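Changelog entry: the Aldose 1-epimerase record was regenerated in this release. Current contents:
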Amino acid sequence: MKNLIKLTDKQSKVVIENGELLSYSMNEKEFIHQKGSPGWRNSDTEMFPVIGPTAQNNFVVPSPKGESLQDQHGLLREFPYTLISFDETSAVFEKIYKANTPVTNSKFPKKSKLEMVSWPYDFRFQKSFTLYENRLIVEFYIASEIDMPFMLGYHPAFLLSGNGKEYIQVKDKKITLSEIIAGGAKAFPVFDCEDLFLVKTEGYNLHIKTTGFGHFMLWTEVNNMLCIEPITQYPYLEKMNFEENMFKKSKGMNSFSVCILPVKKS
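Regenerated structure tokens:
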């Protein structure tokens, strides 16, 4: 497997490493937070099959098939993608999980007391990238047993100027970077929303359009990056007790998409 996959379509370029979106640029303007820069150690990841912290629940997540042990944001990120296919403008990655297989928790022991995590269902999780001249589409396909409970969140980080003046526009509502930072670790929720704009001070604004998720949460601690996260469930409304209504139920095959559409400033 090639570690770095490069997609190009005229003036647009994408770089992916082991399923992680490292770069998306148009006309040499970079949109993705660069690993190693202040703010976050990654550039994108997924949250599945749970979103949010689990420590206050003793890391226990209930399900119809019994309890499982999960750390924050779920176990999907704890094992690697396999490259399925790629060409000049697209790439498909996959993770396959066998029910109750123990997976090493990367947070242990420095950030967690939980050494191994697991989930009582089989699933196949695909992540695909399709680059067009004027947009990038990221799609997720989850195959599992019908009625498997799950939450899904996509967690990309976008590059900002560092001047603190960028903001999020949702219909007629403006959400400033300072408001998002003040939200702290719980992130800033945007409910019942399928698209929003990241309004920047120069270059391109970004129109983020989604299907299947239903909500967003916004997180950063710095002025140079912003995580704009489509989510199926905002996990911080009350004590995290993982009630049944917090989860989607699998249809057997479930699909979700995120479109990142650069819009040149006038």
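The radius of gyration is 18 Å.
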